[in-house]
Design a protein that fits this description.
Elements lengths: L1 H33 L6 E3 L2 E3 L2 E4 L2 E15 L2 E12 L6 H6 L4 E7 L5 H15 L7 H9 L10 E7 L2 E6 L2 E7 L1 H12 L6 H7 L3
Antiparallel strand pairs: 1-2, 3-4, 4-5, 5-6, 6-7, 7-8, 8-9
């Protein structure tokens, strides 16, 4: 009798192990199917990493694309923009509802002087910011003062953490602007009804 019990126990154990391996295999296959492989994008020679960090948190690449501007009648490739978030954000509403942190990286394809950087940010806010509030002009002035000239392939990074908007140039922290309202105004540049560039809006949303 004891031999029969031992045989039954061994068979049961083998069945459980096979079941566990099957479940693990199925889980692995499911994850492979639903989670795209993490790999860098290359846009105009700029390598866009699949992940980045903000405030110590690892963020995933939500989308990236090229920004062009028209000088006279000629399109100029200005920068490659990349947008990182904790989880996929596919609509403007989802972006605004996200608790963050959020991160925007800009890699410039042309050298830009300090005055040109200031003019570009002011023009983008004037043309595309659809969210406004009483102190926007003051906050925008503080924001623009944080930027300097950018060399070709130089970077700017804007990180929205809590209620603060942090500005980095080439990896160095330059300062911040406080307030959720400024964050909303900044996000409206890219995801509002009159975005900086409609095709870039779609690209940043993973389109």
């Amino acid at each position: 009798m004891s031999e029969m019990v031992g045989l039954a126990s061994a068979m049961c154990l083998r069945y459980l192990l096979r079941s566990m391996k099957t479940r693990q295999l199925l889980a692995a296959l499911f994850l492979t199917a639903v989670i795209p492989s993490a790999r860098a994008l290359v846009i105009e020679g700029v390598t866009v990493p699949p992940q980045a960090t903000a405030s110590g948190q690892v963020l995933q690449l939500n989308g990236a694309g090229l920004r062009t501007v028209v000088l006279l009648v000629f399109p100029i490739k200005a920068y490659v923009a990349a947008f990182y978030a904790p989880a996929p954000l596919r609509t403007p509403r989802a972006v605004l509802a996200s608790p963050g942190p959020l991160r925007f990286d800009f890699t410039f394809l042309q050298g830009v002087s300090n005055d040109q950087v200031a003019q570009a940010w002011k023009a983008q806010f004037d043309d595309s910011a659809t969210y406004s509030y009483a102190n926007l002009s003051k906050d925008l002035t503080s924001f623009i003062k944080l930027f300097g000239p950018v060399k070709k392939m130089g970077t700017q990074s804007i990180q929205l953490v809590g209620t603060d908007t942090f500005v980095y140039e080439n990896g160095s922290l330059k300062g911040s602007v406080s307030g959720k309202d400024f964050q909303k105004a900044f996000l409206s540049l890219w995801f509002g009804s009159n975005p900086v560039m409609p095709s870039l809006k779609a690209a940043l949303l993973g389109g």
